[in-house]
């Protein structure tokens, strides 16, 4: 197959997989261990098996099929990694035991247990995993640092100290219910099958935990709840989204349901019927994510990202020459349902309260480049919002402005930092996507906000010429984004900018023998993996985006560009009619938790090949 054939086949696949003729959705996922976790939560919440869509036999088979040679499990697929993931392995082991899928002396369990113990056992797990363990009486709440409930007050003087002002958008929905559960030291013992004492290296520690657990269960709560706890319940209620999530994420929703159920058990709900109805709606939405997410079902889909997927696929198709008129229903749909009053667009369903600057930057690019006259008012409003969201350093966070690293918050967060990134500071990839949209809108180096964005990008460049990626793995992602952003910027010429040529020189050195590009998630923690890894189609496409712009200004990269394009063509599957990434290319939380975005393996190659084709046609 040649470039044209591959583009045509991929375009046809994109249209065939469109949802309701107006959007695209290829749900991202973080690992099947979230389904194992959900099984445990269902038992905790007294959800009977017949009341859930979860099929324990299907999950059991998935885990048997994916158990690795060392006995553990991966978080998400990463062929460059030889080690399994401790937290994923613990939850999967826990499910297999609690569900009765295997006895503890079965081969699957013995191998998994050995891996977990070799890694240090329960005490070596992440902070978030330990919180789940506390809820089941498998770990001591005293080992989890309390979060002062006063930090969630926003009345009077507390409006200046509310934790929501200092942490990332994705952190608050999780820590709100966790703080309340920690306050009460909530736990529930579900019987021997849910005990995982065999995963403790130190048996004495397990005995202490059971003793402390017995003491906690004897503590009686006051008849009248403290006012700070009442405030927390009100905050939970206000965080509820129209379709039933608490903050848009499945995990934050499950924590919230546990907190609300606990409240119901000890104090009366104002409206019991409403509570039961909302509880069912919340579980239904979570189960749609977990079990009705097309090819991503049972893989751990934690949220809905349809507007991001829609924007990327639409951009890919438009770059490949699809007629603009075909996208009017798509645009009208996301303008009506995804775009908010400030002009920003949400990442997906339930995120309407927190428009995403990255998504908005891509939306501006599409509207300004292909629909300038029809939707000028819309992209101008979006640009006004983006300019208002620019940080003092000239860059952009994903959801917030001024959400920088704050020492006091780090001290309060403690070990929670080994489970999630707690700040939403500026990142080069987000800033570059916004800058590219600004360029298409007509902004130039004469505009102050453009100057500030360029200054930020230059200040963040590493000694070797690239930039760390925040939402894509890793340096290759940011190089592709930056070169794309500045390519058509009036007042700046790639060929005469040493800092940009240095980025290209670094990128060229990263090309693999097969012509592709790859970069392991390990590049965030181990310098030897920077720019290195098994070739993937998404990372190769990001490299092509940069190489196209380098070739356009006559830098000596034509051979590298053609080899990378050949890799994309050769990697296309003529049977499935699309590409697949062999490795995780998305970052939920750098150095901690990674995501696989199936849409990337479709959209980014289309964008890259479309631009390559345009380049060749003009030469």
Task: Please provide a written account of the structure.
Helices cover 50% and strands 1% of the residues. By secondary structure, the chain is mostly helical. A two-stranded antiparallel sheet has the order 1-2. A hairpin with a 3-residue loop joins β1 and β2. α1 (3-16) crosses α23, α12 packs parallel to α23 and α20 crosses α21. The protein is globular and about 80 Å long.
Encode the helix/strand succession as letters: HHHHHHHHHHHHHHHHHHHHHHEEH
Strand order of the largest sheet: 1-2
Total strand count, please? 2
**Which parts are unreliable, with pLDDT below 50 for 5 consecutive residues or more?**
none
The helix content is 40-55%
The largest pleated sheet is described as: 2 strands, antiparallel
Q: What is the number of helices?
A: 23
Give the N-to-C terminal Cα separation: 22 Å
| Mean pLDDT across all amino acids | 94
Computed over alpha carbons, the radius of gyration is 25 Å
Q: Which oligomeric state applies?
A: single chain
Based on secondary structure, the structural category is mainly alpha
State the shape: globular
| Content of β-strand | under 5%
Summary keywords:
two-stranded antiparallel sheet, 2 strands, 23 helices, 619 residues
Helix-strand layout with pairing:
Layout: H1 3-16, H2 33-44, H3 56-66, H4 86-98, H5 107-118, H6 127-135, H7 172-184, H8 203-218, H9 227-239, H10 250-266, H11 272-291, H12 306-319, H13 328-337, H14 357-370, H15 376-388, H16 407-413, H17 428-441, H18 448-460, H19 475-486, H20 498-509, H21 537-552, H22 558-571, E1 586-589, E2 593-595, H23 600-617
Antiparallel strand pairs: 1-2
Helix pairs in contact: 1-23, 2-4, 4-5, 7-9, 7-10, 10-11, 12-14, 12-23, 14-15, 14-17, 17-18, 17-19, 19-21, 20-21, 21-22, 21-23
């Amino acid at each position: 197959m040649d470039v044209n054939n591959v583009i045509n086949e991929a375009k046809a696949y994109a249209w065939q997989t469109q949802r309701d003729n107006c959007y695209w959705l290829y749900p991202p996922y973080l690992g099947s261990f979230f389904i194992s976790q959900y099984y445990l939560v269902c038992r905790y919440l007294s959800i009977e098996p017949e009341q859930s869509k979860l099929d324990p036999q299907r999950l059991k088979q998935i885990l048997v099929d994916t158990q690795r040679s060392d006995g553990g499990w991966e978080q998400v697929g990463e062929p460059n990694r030889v080690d399994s993931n401790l937290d994923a392995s613990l939850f999967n082991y826990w499910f297999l035991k609690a569900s009765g899928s295997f006895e503890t002396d079965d081969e699957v369990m013995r191998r998994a247990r050995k891996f977990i113990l070799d890694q240090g056992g329960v005490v070596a797990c992440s902070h978030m995993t330990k919180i789940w363990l506390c809820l089941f009486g498998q770990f001591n709440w005293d080992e989890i640092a309390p979060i002062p409930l006063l930090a969630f007050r926003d009345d009077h003087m507390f409006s200046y100290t509310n934790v929501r002002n200092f942490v990332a958008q994705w952190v608050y929905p999780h820590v709100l219910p966790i703080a309340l559960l920690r306050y009460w030291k909530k736990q529930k013992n579900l019987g021997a099958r849910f005990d995982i004492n065999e995963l403790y290296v130190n048996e004495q520690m397990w005995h202490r935990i059971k003793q402390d657990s017995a003491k906690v269960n004897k503590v009686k709560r006051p008849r009248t709840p403290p006012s700070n706890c009442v405030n927390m319940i009100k905050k939970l209620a206000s965080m509820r989204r129209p379709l039933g999530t608490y903050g848009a994420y499945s995990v934050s929703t499950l924590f919230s349901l546990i907190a609300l159920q606990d409240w119901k058990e000890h104090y009366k709900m104002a409206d019991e019927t409403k509570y039961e109805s909302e509880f069912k709606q919340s579980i239904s939405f979570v189960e749609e994510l977990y079990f009705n997410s097309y090819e991503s079902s049972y893989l751990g889909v934690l949220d809905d990202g349809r507007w991001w997927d829609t924007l990327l696929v639409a951009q890919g198709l438009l770059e490949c020459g699809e007629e603009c008129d075909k996208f009017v229903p798509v645009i009208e749909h996301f303008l009506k349902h995804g775009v908010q009053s400030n002009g920003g667009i949400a990442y997906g369903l339930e995120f309407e309260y927190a428009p995403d600057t990255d998504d908005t930057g891509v939306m501006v690019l599409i509207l300004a480049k292909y629909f300038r006259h029809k939707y000028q008012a819309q992209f101008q409003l979006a640009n006004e919002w983006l300019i208002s969201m620019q940080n003092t350093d000239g860059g952009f966070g994903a959801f917030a402005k001024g959400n920088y690293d704050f020492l006091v918050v780090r001290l309060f967060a403690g070990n929670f930092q080994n489970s999630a990134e707690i700040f939403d500071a500026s990142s080069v990839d987000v800033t570059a996507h916004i800058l590219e949209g600004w360029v298409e809108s007509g902004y130039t180096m004469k505009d102050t906000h453009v100057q500030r964005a360029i200054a930020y990008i230059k200040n963040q460049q590493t000694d070797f010429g690239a930039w760390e990626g925040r939402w894509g793995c890793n340096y290759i992602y940011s190089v592709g984004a930056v070169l794309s952003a500045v390519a058509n910027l009036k007042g700046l010429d790639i060929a005469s900018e040493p800092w940009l040529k240095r980025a290209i020189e670094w990128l060229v050195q990263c090309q693999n023998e097969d012509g592709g590009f790859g970069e392991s998630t390990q590049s965030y923690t181990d310098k030897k993996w920077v720019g290195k890894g098994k070739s993937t189609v998404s990372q190769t496409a990001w490299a092509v985006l940069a190489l196209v712009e380098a070739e356009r200004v006559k830098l000596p990269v034509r051979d590298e560009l053609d080899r990378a394009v050949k890799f994309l063509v050769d990697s296309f599957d003529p049977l499935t009619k699309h590409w697949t990434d062999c490795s995780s290319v998305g970052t939920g939380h750098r150095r901690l938790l990674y995501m696989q975005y199936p849409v990337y393996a479709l959209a980014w190659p289309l964008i890259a090949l479309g631009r390559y084709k345009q380049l060749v046609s003009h030469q």
